[in-house]
Amino acid sequence: MILEEIHIRQRVSALKLKAAQRYNICPEKCHIGHLALEGMLGNQKLLNQIDGVTGTSETMGSVAVRSMRLASAMRNYGLKPGDAVVVIGPNHLDMAIPYYACHFNGNSMCGMDPNIGPVDIKGLLPYIMPKMVFCQKSAVEYVKDAFDAINLEGKIVVFDDEKHNLEQFIEENHGTEVNFRPAEFNHSEVAAWLMLTSGTTGLPKVAVMPFDTLLNGICCWWEKFTGPMKLVLTMSTFQWLSALVFFITAPIRQYTRLQFSEPLTPQLLVGAINKYRPDVTAWTPHLLGQFLQATEKICDLSCFKYILIAGSPMEKPILDQLKKRTDAFLYLVYSMTELLVPAFDYTAETPFGSVGKPFDQYKYKLVDDQGEELAKTFKSGELWMKGDAFFKGYLKNTEETSKMLTEDGWFRTGDIFYRDEENNYYFVERQRLLIKSAGYWISPLQLEEIIRRHPAVRYACVVGIPDKTLMEVPVAAIVRNNGQQIDPKEIFSLVKESMPDLRQLHGGFFYLDQLPITPSGKIHRTKVKEMALTAERILPTSS
């Protein structure tokens, strides 16, 4: 059964009442784990998940039983609310089981992408201190080494190893769904998600999302969408916000997820969309642009009703191209890991380039470099926000937390915005990406937009590298359209026509076949910067 209309806050209230009756507790004690389980038990024949690679699927009822059995086994093993659990792997059908079990038990879940390397795992585990890790065989040695480095005896459950998999762990620890009850604990003190920041500009940090904050955030995510949803295409893994949101909301919002147990390729994605006809998904602009260009005549996107687009600013040609292929509502979201929720109210009437207008439930202000609020329109400043759906700090990292959260509760986004006279907000630049050269700030996004005007340029990414004289100089990594030849003088002339001398490409540029991206589909600027330091660059004087 697919519900024809869902108002998320009414749905949450109804599930709380049902769970309270089932477990004989007051509704206030029901957390998001109660709601997810109640949603599954109330519609057991509905599919919870489909693997787009193998075609296998699993119902809500089956996922509920397996998750309760695992949660029971985890308790019997000794885990308590607030204990951390790490889940690493692709989106096969077993991934959802520890995910939901953690929510039932009040365990703090940290999802990691299957491509995460040993350096990141070893750097993150001292902060997370997990009691248990679920992973593939390919990650076991990394995890063991990380445990040894911090003298921690954590349990490792291996999805694809018959001797150490979920069923074996459940059997050894007498897990059962009989008389199972979700754990009770303080929702504001226990973290539901330990979320890794993307790491596009540095090493990941661990953002803490308590259970009560998470429930507020989920309500904010889905308030705009009251129409029926049948199938949500989930492209990212648990390290990324969209997957975490899509997984927890499926039983609450009553839809099926389409996910992939192998790395997602354009061919696999085209086949899945044409076969299963999902009606909701999330994309980053970079991956969306690549997909649209490669699939114009072979993929029908008319099935989509809602497409969330987030991660970086949207280029108008990509947006126009997408609108030609679908009538879906395109929800251009400004958010970040630490915010959890969409920060602005984006509607069909929002002018292009704007992220939308402020929500009533949050406070906003733009501040200058001295922290003074900017009252005038069209004045650019850093966006500060305050609300009850944002993260509560970085795990065991007070120094980084103090950089982001003021003593009176304002969250510093680190992003520059301005607003117009209609109170529409416009993203200008990510503050930490700015390049300081000879005392002047240079915008990489502005330079990228100029370079992309060249007809032979497909993508451009500008980063700063050290310079003895100027402190930093901008360098561009350029991906050409089908390998077309470019006269370097044309690139430098484009920039010279638009920018003053101090903001030229003094570090030159170099070519790449493709830009490195994170698993969530964002351009990996840290890797581009590493490449720029060793690349054979074309300099203005050599062109």
TrEMBL record:
<dbReference type="InterPro" id="IPR025110">
    <property type="entry name" value="AMP-bd_C"/>
</dbReference>
<keyword id="KW-0576">Peroxisome</keyword>
<dbReference type="InterPro" id="IPR000873">
    <property type="entry name" value="AMP-dep_synth/lig_dom"/>
</dbReference>
<dbReference type="InterPro" id="IPR042099">
    <property type="entry name" value="ANL_N_sf"/>
</dbReference>
<dbReference type="Pfam" id="PF13193">
    <property type="entry name" value="AMP-binding_C"/>
</dbReference>
<dbReference type="InterPro" id="IPR045851">
    <property type="entry name" value="AMP-bd_C_sf"/>
</dbReference>
<feature type="domain" description="AMP-binding enzyme C-terminal">
    <location>
        <begin position="447"/>
        <end position="522"/>
    </location>
</feature>
<feature type="domain" description="AMP-dependent synthetase/ligase">
    <location>
        <begin position="56"/>
        <end position="395"/>
    </location>
</feature>
<dbReference type="GO" id="GO:0005777">
    <property type="term" value="C:peroxisome"/>
</dbReference>
<dbReference type="InterPro" id="IPR020845">
    <property type="entry name" value="AMP-binding_CS"/>
</dbReference>
<dbReference type="GO" id="GO:0003824">
    <property type="term" value="F:catalytic activity"/>
</dbReference>
<protein>
    <recommendedName>
        <fullName>Luciferase</fullName>
    </recommendedName>
</protein>
<dbReference type="Pfam" id="PF00501">
    <property type="entry name" value="AMP-binding"/>
</dbReference>
